[in-house]
Design brief:
Blueprint (H helix, E strand, L loop, with lengths): L2 H4 L4 H12 L8 E2 L3 H10 L3 E4 L1 H9 L9 H12 L5 E5 L7 H13 L4 E5 L17 H14 L6 E6 L1 H4 L1 H15 L3 E5 L4 H10 L5 E4 L7 H5 L3 E5 L3 H18 L14 H8 L1 H11 L2
Parallel strand pairs: 1-2, 2-3, 3-4, 4-5, 5-6, 6-7, 7-8
Helix pairs in contact: 3-13, 5-6, 6-7, 7-9, 9-10
Length: about 290
């Protein structure tokens, strides 16, 4: 039995659990999940917090890169598939809210109804505009409008709204400080930053975040979890190796089959019966069969 199968936890309880972790004074890495199988495995192994990244969502749903092709309905449907098979507190990457502030309201309500515990809204211009290169940011007043809309949209007050800025990568430390200060004053529950590469930038963010929990994305952050916790960093995301590993596994098996080598493919590279049963909740459904079908 997985943790989920032993005791089903309400969406609000999952959100409360994440809030407790964010305020717990420690830094941790959440499980990176992208479908019901990865969610079941993470839950079964004892993870309590997970993140559903936009890059994995676009890849697994559309087989496409993370270039704003995914629709909000695609994201909501996959979020629901993940949350209904696990007790994970799920952080969902909602990009820039899929449009303007009114679109943000719809996105928050739909993702909340799908069981998301936390939702990130970022300040990037998406999709890319003709004649532009690289990453561009929306104006600060639009970011604050989106943050306010997200906060007002939630039905469950335990739903966590995370303001995310890419300003360090595009505007430098000064612009990042300006946006973090503004987000902190808007009432969001946490701040998410990408592009932090050194401790000096982290000090600036820490001093302007008004005590809010901080999430960092990117493997370029070299500090340990204990060191990051001193700057109020609650979550560090160092890549999404789970999806990468699954893609490599599928590729390797298909390549072996194409080359006529499937029979000699190493059994050690395949999931055992025990792991497969864990991935599909077989023991849970076996117990249901025994109880209700005799």
């Amino acid at each position: 039995m997985t943790r989920f199968e032993e005791e089903i936890v309400s969406p609000s309880a999952k959100r409360q659990n994440l809030r407790k972790h964010l305020r717990g004074g420690t830094c941790f890495q959440p499980a990176s999940v992208f479908d019901p199988v990865s969610a079941r495995l993470a839950d079964s192994l004892g993870f309590e917090i997970a993140i559903f990244p936009g890059s994995s969502a676009s890849a697994v749903v559309l087989g496409a890169p993370d270039i704003a092709l995914l629709s909000i309905n695609d994201l909501v449907d996959q979020t629901r598939r993940i949350t209904r098979v696990s007790n994970l507190s799920l952080i969902v990457d909602a990009d820039n809210g899929y449009g303007n502030s009114i679109n943000v309201i719809a996105a928050i309500r739909d993702l909340e109804a799908a069981g998301a515990s936390a939702i990130t809204i970022e300040d990037t211009v998406l999709p890319q505009r003709k004649g532009t290169k690289g990453e561009h940011l929306i104006e600060l007043d639009e970011l604050l409008s989106k943050a306010t809309a997200a906060l007002e949209a939630r039905v469950d007050p335990e739903t966590i709204i995370i303001g995310r800025t890419h300003a360090l990568r595009t505007g430098g430390a000064f612009e990042a400080e300006r946006r973090v200060l503004a987000l902190a004053s808007s009432g969001v529950d946490a701040i998410f930053l990408v592009g932090v590469t050194n401790e000096d930038d982290l000090k600036v963010i820490y001093n302007s975040s008004n005590g809010l929990p901080i999430l960092l994305g990117g493997s370029e952050v070299k500090l340990s979890e204990a060191e990051l916790a001193r700057y109020n960093v609650s979550i560090i995301i160092r890549g999404h190796q789970t999806f990468q590993a699954s893609v490599q596994g599928i590729y390797s098996v298909l390549l072996a089959q194409l080359n006529g080598e499937l029979e000699s493919y190493p059994v050690s590279n395949l999931a055992s019966t025990e792991v497969m049963d864990m991935a599909i909740g077989k023991n849970y459904f076996r117990s249901l069969n025994s109880r209700f079908l005799g």
